[in-house]
Amino acid sequence: MIDVDTATAAHYRQLVSQLQQHNHRYYVLDDPSVPDAEYDRLMHELCALEARYADLVDADSPSQRVGGMALAEFNQVAHTRPMLSLDNAFDAAELQEFGRRVNERLARRDSVAYACEPKLDGVAISLLYRHGILDRAATRGDGAVGEDITENARTIRSIPLRLQGDSVPKLLEVRGEVYMPRDGFDRFNAAAIAGGEKTFVNPRNAAAGSLRQLDPKITAARPLQMCAYGVGEIDAQWQPPTHLEMLQYLGALGFMINPHVHLAVDIDDCEQYYRDLAIQRPALPYDIDGIVYKVNDLEFQRRLGTVRRSPRWAIARKFPAEEEMTQLIAVEFQVGRTGAITPVARLQPVFVGGVTVSNATLHNADEIARLDARVGDMVIVRRAGDVIPQIAKVMVEKRPVDAVPVKFPDCCPVCHSPVEQLTGEVVARCTGGMFCSAQIKQAIKHYASRRAMDIDGLGDRLVEQLVDAKRIHSVVDLYNLDVSQLLPLERMAAKSATNLLVAIENSKQTSLAKFLFALGIREVGEGSAQILANSFGSLEALIDASPEALLEIDGIGPIVARHIGNFFSNPDALAIVSALQESGVIWPNEAVDQRAEQPLHGQTWVLTGSLQIMSRAEAKDALLGLGAKVAGSVSAKTSQLVAGPGAGSKLRKAESLDIPTMDEQQFIEFLQVQRNF
Ligand code: IVH
Question: Would you kindly state where each structural domain of the chain is located, as residue ranges?
Answer without folding.
Answer: 6-66, 88-318, 323-420, 436-506, 512-593, 600-676
